[in-house]
Amino acid sequence: MTTPVPTTSTTAAGDARIGVYVCRCGLNIAQTVDCDAVAAAMAKQPDVAVAKSIGYACSEPGQREIREEIETLGLNRVVIGSCSPRLHEPTFRQMLAAAGLNPYLLEMANLREQCSWVHMQNREGATAKARDLVKMAVARSRRLQPLDEARLPMTQRALVIGGGVAGIQAALDMADNGYEVVMVERQPSIGGVMAQLDKTFPTMDCSI
Amino acid sequence: MTDAGRHPRITIHTLSDVLEIKGNVGNFDVQIVKKARYVDEKACTACGDCAKVCPVVRPDEFNLGLSSRRAIYSPFPQAVPSAYVLNPHECLGNNPVVCSKCLEACEKKCIDFHMSDQTLNERVGTIVVATGLAPHDPRVLDEYGYTRYENVLTSLEFERLVNAGGPTQGHLLRPTDRQQPKSVGFIQCVGSRSARRGKAYCSNICCMNTIKSTLVLKEHYPDMAVKVFYIDIRAFGKGFEDLYTRSRRQGVHYVRGLPGHVEELPDGRLRVAVENASGGTLDYYELDMLVLAIGIEPAAGTHKLQEMLGLQLTSDGFFLEAHPKLQPVDAATRGVFYAGCAEGPKDIKESVTQASAAAVRAIRLMQSNTIAAEAITSEIDPELCKACGKCAQVCPYHAITVDPKKKTPAQVVTAACSGCGTCAAECAFGAITMNHFTDRQIVDQIDAMLEDRPSEKILTFACNWCSYAGADYAGVSRLQYPPNARLIRTMCSGRVDEQFIWHGFKKGAPVILVSGCHIGDCHYINANHWTVKRVEKVRQKMEKRGLRPERLQLEWISAAEGVRFAEVMTRMEQLRRTVTDKEIAETIDLLEK
Ligand SMILES: Cc1cc2nc3c(=O)[nH]c(=O)nc-3n(C[C@H](O)[C@H](O)[C@H](O)COP(=O)(O)OP(=O)(O)OC[C@H]3O[C@@H](n4cnc5c(N)ncnc54)[C@H](O)[C@@H]3O)c2cc1C
Ligand code: SF4
Ligand code: SF4
Ligand code: SF4
């Protein structure tokens, strides 16, 4: 599901109202990082309107809580200390969009893959690092600007490189759904390795 | 296969290779070279009259050289397209005096010696990479006497020999005397699961393939003695254990232990020495034929495609998915998807499942006739631009136009900009703003980080696609390393401005690490070449100013190199411990002047 990007512009740096959410991820983060201490430290940072730890930020109740606070507290920047942005940045960007904020006003701090999971024996060091990472995210979030994603034309045809059983299946599925497919095969025939097999497991029937 | 061949919306280019891919999701421009077939694909009825008269006899690749074909031939009976193909390197040539027998034999007149290679241009919105596998070549390691002993075959050769359409019409014959073997042994994990020989990973299909082959043998030749030498049998899939049990019930002898030695006896039989891991004994077996269960490796040309599309590979050489659990068929490059063994060894069922998944992921993007463009692009302030031309020179996408002679300020073609940030890092006049990774944003991050106890912290820049992903991978693998580094994510290491580095040192950073994709793996074609140049330049300046250049480090870490990331972190921490408070204070003094 893609939510359309709202184009509402937000206040420029200076009157930022930042919401900071430190995700415990069950115990994934909380068992190594003192999430409450991190949140408490952030509450003292300038422009931070709210800072708290939260059980599962990505869960529906977690997202609802943040969405509601965006509205009730008039937040215009959201900082989430949680897993890698490579995992949930799209999730939280959509959450911002659903709350009427431009999705680029989100900043994440990686407290799980790059902190709690790699410093498991060092709660103090991990908590100090988490504090810095969220603080850096807060600093950056102040300077974030809304961005608009322009629409570019999409060519509704696909290229399939390789005509083995995988390429053939992908091509058929796309073609059956109405898309034109160009298949490139290096050999004089498609078929790949499967064409060379006699019977195949697990069904023990012939392959072509 | 035939469904694909007949489908009105599928165009198949065989004998073809992708030469170049430009552009981005929604609009990839693909250049394809299609080699000449010398036979009109549409007109040929596959009657075979041409091959009957061709005097050139060559080993048949499809049957792995176990049979022969002519210089003009059909790849195999069910081939799609079914048209014959002429190999120009084998053909005696189009000089009529020399040969051209086929030309005369073909009634449809579909043979054309003057056909030439074609270059085709296609524009597509999405790409599915399904380049498959290459079987392990046991010759490389001279495994079990393969090629020295004729009766040692690979599992793929065995497939052809038991295939009704194969060179022996499905009768299993021993190559030396063309007699039916009375005993056959299978050796597992050839080229797999060994740190010393071949690949370290499990090839996934060889156990089940061997079990299948033993059942085929027992069905046709119930009295044949069939043995399997293995480390352990991996029959994990649906219905697999059942086949394994059936095989054992039918009398197939499973011997735990891989042969240490194979020797050929004068009558062509093979004597195999096996240390039996269950009994601890050294056993000898004499067998008529040995089949090597060869592993699966990435297809040839994987690297070329990887570079063309800015994709990532695992340490095993297969394509790396965007997320191993949640985006198993997406490439990190938007609009590119993986299907089948290109992504890793797997069986047909899994290949087909993944292919359908890839198709749906591609359709998800293609269903609309527009797509959201990259919002993270650069912007140029014409007031500040001095039209020096540097940005246009470094942009890997040629997205910037500027005329230094006429002094027309630079302009970015936003649709072509991919957002690496190299231009912004290289502009000496601060004329370029990199959206979402502005100088101000990054400098503020550095300040926040180094505000207190800077001497304990390692300022690390990591690129989104490789080193930052490698750090995530270290996390997923729970690798433990010192907690001193603080990562600042940029899309590309090319974004790391010289000013960020000076600023970091001025604020008291003991060590600064710049990290990114290996050279050749850059997600932005070759933007990281500029990273190297820049880091080198800064280090020279450091040296001149009396700073230890080692305090600025550059490391390449791929998305799959979690272990390497953890090692680098440990090394950086060791380096940090060599930087004294005095040294840091001196640096700050020097740079504040
Ligand atoms: C000996 C053996 C026995 C097996 N037995 C079984 C079995 O019984 N049951 C089972 O489920 N699985 C079996 N498998 C596994 C099965 O073969 C694979 O799962 C299946 O072939 C994977 O399909 P694919 O399309 O990914 O790759 P492939 O079959 O390898 O097809 C890839 C295609 O892409 C083409 N190609 C590659 N690179 C390029 C390029 N750059 N440009 C253009 N074209 C390119 C190749 O020419 C090839 O046609 C067996 C494998 C082996 C080796
Ligand atoms: S947002 Fe990330 S860290 Fe938080 S609960 Fe979800 S997965 Fe865990
Ligand atoms: S590098 Fe900077 S000054 Fe030079 S042309 Fe580009 S934008 Fe203008
Ligand atoms: S150098 Fe990178 S950021 Fe600059 S215009 Fe080119 S692609 Fe865009």
Detailed description of the structure:
- The complex is a heterodimer of chains A (208) and B (593).
- Chain A is of the alpha/beta class and 208 residues long.
- In chain A, 35% of the residues lie in helices and 20% in strands.
- Chain A is built from 6 helices and 9 strands, in the order βαβαβαβααββαβββ.
- Chain A has helices at 35-43, 60-72, 85-98, 112-116, 123-142, 165-176; strands at 18-23, 48-54, 77-82, 106-110, 151-153, 157-161, 180-184, 199-200, 205-206.
- In chain A, the strands form 3 sheets. A 4-stranded parallel beta sheet of chain A has the order 2-1-3-4, with helices on both faces. A two-stranded parallel sheet of chain A has the order 6-7. A two-stranded antiparallel ribbon of chain A has the order 8-9.
- In chain A, helix 1 runs parallel beside helix 5 (123-142) and helix 2 (60-72) packs across helix 3.
- The longest helix of chain A has 20 residues, at 123-142.
- Mean pLDDT of chain A is 92; it is low at 1-13.
- Chain B is α/β, with parallel strands linked by helices.
- Chain B is 27% helix and 23% strand.
- Chain B has a 5-stranded parallel beta sheet. In chain B, strands 27-26-28-29 form a 4-stranded parallel beta sheet, sandwiched between helices. A 3-stranded antiparallel beta sheet of chain B has the order 2-3-8.
- In chain B, helix 12 (467-476) crosses helix 15 (562-577).
- Classes of the chains: A alpha/beta (208), B alpha/beta (593).
- Bound molecules: flavin-adenine dinucleotide and iron/sulfur cluster (SF4) (3 copies).
- Flavin-adenine dinucleotide sits between chains B (17-18, 130-133, 135, 155-156, 159, 205, 209, 212, 296, 299, 301, 305, 340-342, 346-349, 351) and A (161-167, 184-187, 192-194, 197, 200-201).
